[in-house]
Amino acid sequence: MKFTNQKTFSVSISAILVVFAMSSTFLKFHPSTTESKANEAVVDRPHYQIEATYDDQNQVVKGKMKVDLPESRTEPQKEVYFHLYPNVFQNWKYNKESKPQKPGFIKIQNVKVDGNAVKQEVRNEIMKVSLPQELGKGKSARIEMDYTLQLPKGGTRLNTFKHTAFLAQWYPMLSVKDKEGWHNEPYTTVGDPFYTNMSDFDVTFHVPEGYQVISTAKDPITKKGGEIKLTQHQVRDFAAVITKDYQVVQGKSGNIQVNLWYLAGMDDVKEELHKAAVDGMKFFGERFGSYPYEEIDVVLGETGYGIAGMEYPGLVTSVPKAPSLKGEVPAVNVVAHELAHQWWYGVVGNNQAKEPWLDEGLTSFSEFLYMKKQKGENGDEWLKKVVTRTNQIHDSLHVHSAQKLYDYPDEVYGLMVYLRPTAMMFDLVGQIGEDKVMKIMSTYYQKFQYRTATTKDFIQVANEVSGKNLTSFFDQWLYFKANDSKNKKSAS
Ligand SMILES: [Zn+2]
User: Fold this and answer.
1) Domains of the chain (ranges plus CATH)?
2) C-alpha 133 to ligand 1 mean position (Å)
3) Average pLDDT value over all residues in the chain
């Protein structure tokens, strides 16, 4: 995601955060081969089948979901967890500015495992489904359930407005179980706590007359009303917008279909932002490696209080305009940021709750690089200030740049997690050259595509590709190691 300059960032560093918001001023396509290569291997991804009916009178989605769990499993398991994110909109415990006008929630019924009814336990946004038998290695299982989703009005990400339903984290989402156990990390408003594995999705919507669906999958653009069938394999999430309000500008970036969706009153930005999306997909594809899907949708509008844009696989949101030193300008930098997330988050995953810098830092660097190369907007002076300010923040709050999402006070999150790593990557360009840094990014992309990478993985790729030991470079930038030893010396 990307922030706006709203009150989320006030407190003592308001000045630099205004400039943060103003970062807007400068601030090989082979899909069939990558897809088919991936599909030849044993499919070890969950497979979701969702049948969803939208009631536009009551803003309710009735869903029937089947999830086939993959066979790959390192140890037997007795239960499975799901995130029920819509429940955070029931009793809003976050800042009052982002409180929905009308609450939302999700109710689950008729849970079955391999056809047998089982009990589920729901605690706020987490549901535990107990398995009737321990699920061993090499054994699949089908979990079925019905759900009723009441959409909030004025919600963050998940939302309804006019004749539009914005479906983000709108179905029970499987928790990830890895070496560390189950990841049932809680929701937050500042930052993205959503950590998921690659999955396959077959989604059928039933929508009222006149409505169309914009989604993570390749969308049937002219189809309105009735049954709309969508399929997308090998993605981390499935987002959709059900709407009667949006119009589209279509185009191609190489073989990728690029759709920009806009509302009435956005005519003055639609062409420029569509061009930015076409150019952005080409720019990142050439540098990092090809985008492996057929389509990308950019949906303009408000994502929620304090959020300028948000990324989902194959679909991103952006505000139409962002503040700059020249006043409000078309939000090219927000579009570039969210599109770069298709590489860092979408294809190369990471645990966003545990190491948010890894996707946000690389994405922010990609955005700044795009703005510099394509728009001639140089962020060097601004990034120098970021370094000074983040050094001060580290000294006073003892946070570094590679911590958990929950460890940061809201007002320093963007500086520590987005901007200091951006400054780090430009410093690396200065030290080893841009070609080498691009080679690091493209190697990391190739090596970890469809997987979950860690900070350690990224540093290892950087060391291998550069032929240098850059560990102390990253230690200093991310963990402030040199600062701490310097402080220790001066104190002793
Ligand atoms: Zn982001």
Assistant:
1) 2-27+29-33+251-491 (1.10.390.10), 46-196 (2.60.40)
2) 40
3) 90
